[in-house]
Specification:
Distance between the termini of chain A: 76 Å
Low-confidence stretches of chain A: 341-357
Largest interface: A-B, 43 and 42 residues
Mean pLDDT of chain A: 92
Structural class of chain A: alpha/beta
Oligomer: homodimer
Radius of gyration of chain A: 27 Å
Number of helices of chain A: 13
Order of helices and strands of chain A: HHHHEHEHEHEEHEHEHEHEEHEEH
Chain lengths: 357, 357
DNA sequence: TCCCTGCGGGAAAGGGCTTTCTCTGCGGTA
DNA sequence: TACCGCAGAGAAAGCCCTTTCCCGCAGGGA
């Protein structure tokens, strides 16, 4: 690999001058020398060694991002928001997937710290795990002590800047909607127990049901992986245990789509026989059939806000921005069947707004 | 930030010794000193400066990856394959999104070269653009000249190692399937004209039709962005221009899903009134309703192979691996309607299996 | 007793770049 | 004519590590 001094030698100038030309330094260089340097760069196909550069100008610019999995639409959307702001500011993003492994998360904090990132953003649910949380906070504190900025998205266990989707309110919205439609036998497909997001959404849901004098017994909750297959399987277990269910809430859209697949396989029509609610409103939610009724989270905006916090001027007190959830009514949630399946047997029921007209 | 010499000073040893302890060097260090160093590391929360390390051991290990967009399922799957192999070998991946911007692609090659990656993988269609192709090849050649390894996925304009999904054969498969089902009026939703992938898939499709004595006039092709909205819009334009269509081939699944949305909005039933074929078989294809008939590409495997090529021993001659496409029959492609809409004039026609039966 | 060997440790030389500091030579002012 | 100031270039000091090379010392064999 050609180095700067190769270029300098070829151009017949000092490395200092070559560097100034290449980096467009403010220090003036005569056109003559500039030309020569540029020519040498082109001839040698010179590309500066990024590590040497980063080392020399101990000037942190990149931003580290730790997400559960970028290819999960939830994080893809958040990342889009992060990127947008970062690009505007000419920042490079280093994105790491923890795949929901706390240890890997810890490792990545170190890795990114080692890479001298100017800021660190952790996106995705926290864990109900005291020891881990303490360790993480220690690492983050150490990082912040050296001038690093930290923001988290959707996890409350950290003391610094945070962007919080209102998971609890979202759960509440879902619950209220189903109650309003008359549902009583509601099953829940929850994410992993250890995630705080699961707990929060569940808490909101439960609150809504309780307020309406209904309840959410543990036997109507299934905990599964936060993905399509987890949802499909959990729906099956839920239905096996409790065929009376008239509605299922999935705590994210991927799981809801899995549930839809299970229902279709079992010949249950949605929403005539059973209603389904998702959570997150990922882009695909509108394209499944029937289109998914879900709780929307402003995912892109969450990313935008987090990156803005972290790149903006540091506030004396940590800022917490809570972003609202919103119910998006589409076609998977309908009124509870007049006669529940238990009474009516297996006869198909009319579609909502169909049979009557 | 604490540095290695801070650690050394605190432990009362030389930086050399500290380095040896921290990196588990083969050179022996007494337990006593080792302990002291480790203690100092813990107390100072020391993390080595990655740039300094990378600079000092001029040992390239990371691998650079340029894709169009990781959050696009097509690339997400490929990336999964890349990651799998890379992780097994303890390699770090640097992934960059070009968002189908050739200039950005060029920039990223430089960037990654500057970051001293051991290898470079370019995934995603090439461009019909002589000037760009030449520039890219020059840059890649320069990189290879300094010992870098290069592999491309799905683009043929590079001379080195390549993994090629058989786009043409896939297009052929799609065409043959539709011919077999009796379709004649076939519309195509193609990706951007400038992409070689578009051309290849289209060529295969056209070949199949031609062999069956049918044809694919330009007026039945719409070029659009390779995403859901592009597909939705192109389907609308296609239908407006040619209401006789009995089948639509979308050149990727995202566009097919968009087309499905348009058809649903227009009250056309799939596959009774019109058939739809996708391409790629991304995971969501089985979850839309009706489930998408599509051409499967071994996306994960493509990633696995590319990374293996690039990390394996260099072959004297560039290796090109062609990976087969495969038709996946699901529910969006059916036989051509008995009476095509053409014969029946423009009066609204009954849905198949509806009014007539 | 002397020399050689090998072990454990430190000194120092890079690795490739940025940037401050220093130097030279020129034009302009008194 | 003498001096000052400044523009433009280079020398050199880092940035933070790794790794080679070297040194001192203890133990073992002759």
């Amino acid at each position: 690999m050609a180095t700067l001094s190769d270029v300098a030698r070829r151009a017949g100038v000092s490395p200092a001058t070559a560097s100034r030309v290449i980096n467009g330094s403010s220090k003036p260089v005569t056109d003559e020398l500039r030309e020569r340097v540029l020519a040498a760069v082109a001839e040698l196909q010179y590309v500066p060694n990024a590590h040497a550069q980063l080392l020399a100008r101990s000037h942190r610019s990149a931003v580290g991002v730790i997400v559960h999995d970028v290819s999960d639409p939830y994080f893809a959307e958040i990342t889009r928001g992060l990127q947008r702001v970062a690009t505007d500011q000419g920042r490079l993003l280093m994105i790491c997937n923890s795949y929901r492994d706390p240890d890997r998360e810890l490792e990545y904090v170190e890795l990114l710290r080692g890479h001298q990132v100017a800021a660190l953003i952790l996106a995705g649910s926290g864990y109900h795990d005291e020891a881990f949380t303490r360790q993480l906070n220690e690492k983050l504190a150490a990082y912040e002590a050296t001038g690093g900025r930290v923001a988290v998205i959707g996890r409350h266990e950290h003391s610094g800047d945070a962007v919080m989707p209102d998971n609890r309110a979202g759960g509440y919205l879902a619950g209220r909607e189903l109650c309003g439609l008359g549902h009583r036998a509601i099953g829940v497909i929850a994410g992993p127990r250890i995630l705080t997001t699961t707990t929060d959404r569940l808490a909101g849901l439960r609150q809504a049901l309780t307020e309406q004098g209904r309840e959410l017994p543990e036997r109507r909750i299934r905990y599964a992986e936060f993905d399509r297959d987890g949802g499909a399987e959990a729906a099956a277990r839920l239905l096996d245990a409790d065929p009376e269910l008239t509605a299922i809430v999935a705590l994210n859209d991927s799981m809801a789509i899995g549930a839809l697949a299970t229902l279709r396989a079992r010949g249950l029509s949605v929403p005539q026989q059973i209603s389904v609610l998702g959570f997150d409103d990922m882009p695909i939610a509108r394209d499944v059939t029937p289109a998914l009724t879900t709780v929307r989270l402003p995912l892109v905006h969450m990313g935008v806000r987090a990156m803005s916090l972290v790149l903006g001027v540091g506030a004396p007190t940590p800022r917490v921005e809570v972003l609202p959830a919103e119910l998006v009514r589409r076609d998977t949630a309908g009124p509870v069947p007049r006669a529940t399946r238990a009474t009516a047997g297996s006869a198909p029921r009319a579609r909502r707004g169909d049979a009557s007209s």
